[in-house]
Amino acid sequence: MQVTETKAEGLTREYNVVVAAADIEEKVTTRLAEISKTIKIPGFRPGKVPAKVLRQKYGQSVMGEVLEGAVNESSSKTIADNELRPVAQPKIEITKFEEGADLEYTMSVELFPEFDMMDFKKISLERLVVPIKDEEIDETLQRIADANKDSEAVKSKAKKIAKGNIAVIDFVGSVDGEEFPGGKGEDYPLEIGSNTFIPGFEDQLVGLKVDDEKDVEVKFPEEYGAENLAGKDAVFKCKVKEIRNVVPAEINDDLAKKVGMDSLDALKDAIREERSKEFDQMTRQHVKKHLLDALDDGHAFDLPESLVEGEVEQIWAQFEETRKNNPEQIDESDKDKSDEELKAEYKEIAERRVRLGLVLAEVGRVNEIQLNQDDLNGAIMNEARRYPGQEQAVFEYFKNNPQAIEQLRAPLFEEKVVDFILELAAVTDKEVSADDLLGALNAEEEAEEKPAKKAAAKKKAPAKKKADDKAEGDE
Q1: pLDDT tens digits, residue range 269-294?
Q2: What is the pLDDT at residue 144?
Q3: N or C terminus of the chain with fewer C-beta within 10 Å?
Q4: Average pLDDT of the chain to the nearest whole number
Q5: Under a CB-based contact definition with an 8 Å cutoff, are residues 452 and 322 in contact?
């Protein structure tokens, strides 16, 4: 094998590789001899097929197999001999080959950049920690009680509907005298003051008694979900069937058992644990963002162009999908920008992602950070918890799909490297309120995301709503 370096610019290396014809022929002959032992050809006993017959029948397929193996073997040897660290598979182009002649090809390799890592001990970070206070537990318990309140029928026929009562009604809605789909209900329990119906609807029922009938006149909001009703005047013919008083649920062991817990104390512990978990995730998100900023600022080196281009293509594909299917999510300021202007912004995002990815990979390599089976098992367990009642199906999915497990490796490895760096960095805990933490996260998100970035970034629920939804999801 003869190897000649033809280019050494930046992170790119190119080589011209020649594999001698004699080596190719030797491999072909050896391979034909191997298959002759098992191949069956009419008129010949196994192992006794003449070489000429074998070459006529199988020569082309064996030659293809040998050439592929020769390229793989010689390119791997070239990389090893020159102590190269490719960031991706080398690009190979066969430039010359005829049977009986040398094999020649060119190989282009883009290398992992060499750089000095910053001193992680000089990174100073503030970790915002939210203590879970008893008042928050009490507020959540009250929401659970409100969601589980009962009601009892009012026996007096003279009782008039008041705010806080539940009015059991029949209703039929119409627009311009025509009933519309979904505008009819029977024995519907409507809590007056809950604002679950169209604005103004519930107020017009106040003062009515059982068996009273009334035409409730309302106007659908302009932003109403059904376009055929948005902004339209409507009339609902209503009849009061029953009036019920709300009976608040007491916060006690019975309430806890009603929502699947053994006792009130167990319910409180579950709420505290869930709230802590949610805020811990937000704290992690905040400190990790600042750590990545520090790593980005602390490293400057040439980036492999192929990785940057691949990242830009991925972001651009997400943007085009949004522009095609959800154009309302595109920021107004972006609609007047050219594709070139938007791609320039995306390239900045791509460069940051690639730079950070290379830094984290190098930290992991140098410090021999490895994922073990416990790490993977924990990630699979977390995935299974997302699908209550279907855990076994999730386990079977990962058991039968090794590629799915591989998809867990990259984010797991990143988190493990981040943990390693955080151990070295100077991290100071600061107690803050939930609103302070959520405000910091939202402010950073708004400051960091340019309009073009928002279209390409994964949509996230507002942090406060996410926290509340999570807390109440276990109620």
Answers
A1: 999 999 999 999 999 999 999 999 99
A2: 94
A3: N
A4: 88
A5: no
Is residue 395 within 8 A of residue 384, CB to CB? The reply is: yes
Tokens for 41, please give them. Answer: 């050809």
Report the alpha-carbon angle 70-72-78, nearest 5.
95
pLDDT digits (tens, 9 = 90+) for 179-210: 999 899 999 999 999 999 999 999 999 999 99
Tens digit of each residue's pLDDT (9 = 90 or more) over 411-460 = 999 999 999 999 999 999 999 998 999 999 988 877 665 444 444 444 33
The predicted model scores a pTM of: 0.70
d(CA 342, CA 349): 11
Cβ 148 vs Cβ 249: under 8 Å: yes
3-state secondary structure 315-383: HHHHHHHHHHHCHHHCCHHHCCCCHHHHHHHHHHHHHHHHHHHHHHHHHHHHCCCCCCHHHHHHHHHHH
- For 130-199, the DSSP string reads ----HHHHHHHHHHHHHHT-EEEE---TTPPP-TT-EEEEEEEEEETTEEEEEEEEEEEEEETTS--SST
Query: Are 159 and 209 spatial neighbours (Cβ–Cβ below 8 Å)?
Result: yes
- C-alpha torsion angle, residues 171, 177, 181, 183 (rounded to 10): -20
Cα–Cα distance, 343 to 103 (Å, whole number)? 41
Partners of 247 in beta bridges: 150
Whole-number Å distance between alpha carbons of 462 and 442: 8
φ, ψ of residue 192 to 5 degrees: the values are: -75, 125
Q: DSSP for 79-126, please give it.
A: HHHTT--BSSPPEEEEEE--TTS-EEEEEEEEBPPP-PPP-GGG-EEE
- To 10 degrees, the CA torsion angle through 374, 378, 384, 389? 80
Q: Which residues pair with 7 in a beta bridge?
A: 14
Q: What is the pLDDT of residue 465?
A: 35
Rounded Cα distance between 98 and 102, Å, is: 7
